[in-house]
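Question (not urgent): is this output format expected?
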Amino acid sequence: MAKKSNEAPLQLGLPEVALARRYSLGFALLLALGILHFALLPGLLGACLGFLAAKALVRLGQRWRYGPRATLAAAVVIVLPLLALLLALLNAKAMALGAAGQYQALLHYLAQTILEIRKKIPPDWAQYLPEELMDVQLWLADMLKSKASVLAGAGTQGLHGLLLVYVGLVVGALMAAGTIAASSAPLRLQMRERGRLFIAAFSQVVVAQFWIAVFNASCTATLLLIALPLAGAQVPYIGPLVTLTFFCGLIPIVGNLLCNAMLTLAGLSVSVGVGIACLVFLVVIHKAEYAINARILGKHTNTASWELLAVMFVGEAIFGLPGLVAAPLYYGYAKKEWQAGGWI
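Got this back:
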């Protein structure tokens, strides 16, 4: 009888684990969709960032005898951004309005450049442009002007997004500092596994894309602030263009295409030569970016460009800009789950 009672839990173990995995996957799916539906993506990104930052501080502190423990590392992650946020809030309204005004002016400037493109290029080239191109020029100019009008109310939304990021940062840091209770409950273990895989996907996809964005913005700043002025050319709106390059660089492929088009238009507004120089520069930078991307991500994600484009197109079509931003992260996590399940 004793032998029979000892074997019973082992026979029930595998079905329980499989059922718990299904429930945890269903909960993760609902949570992911709910975050997009209720516009909580900044909080999710902040939570992942806070968790990784606290863990990194703990690992760094382990090299010294009096390094920060988990609780102290979480406190550092929470307090330092709070101090920066408080300092920024002292002039938040002026900063938000100033940034929105700069980007409004930039978009209007680019719209005017599109309308005057025939005047910017040599007459010998202009005669080969089809007349139907004017309709495309008008459409692009109207779109840029409409985006510029939307920026008028972007200051409050930007502050709301920053607050969501900070709240998520606090949650992530506290999660990293908390102790994990020993448990053999199948659902709890499976939920922990979902979290572990999502953090792994975040560290591989988002963190790598962050460094790529830093690389893009640094190279763009070098071009606009050093290379072109030495050649006697001065592109307007350098600050907004560099900042836009960084934030667009956080979005794979699509973000690069967007900032490339805007930077080329800004160069074309000065002269055809400057526009061509900007375009050539961007091609070279993206070739270097491929090598950096391969080195940072390696073969961990094993994601092709067409896969990213497809999921980003679907994400943007369903959820708009949040879906576009979240698509690479969600897809990276999905591939982690498929690999863990032995499906790919």
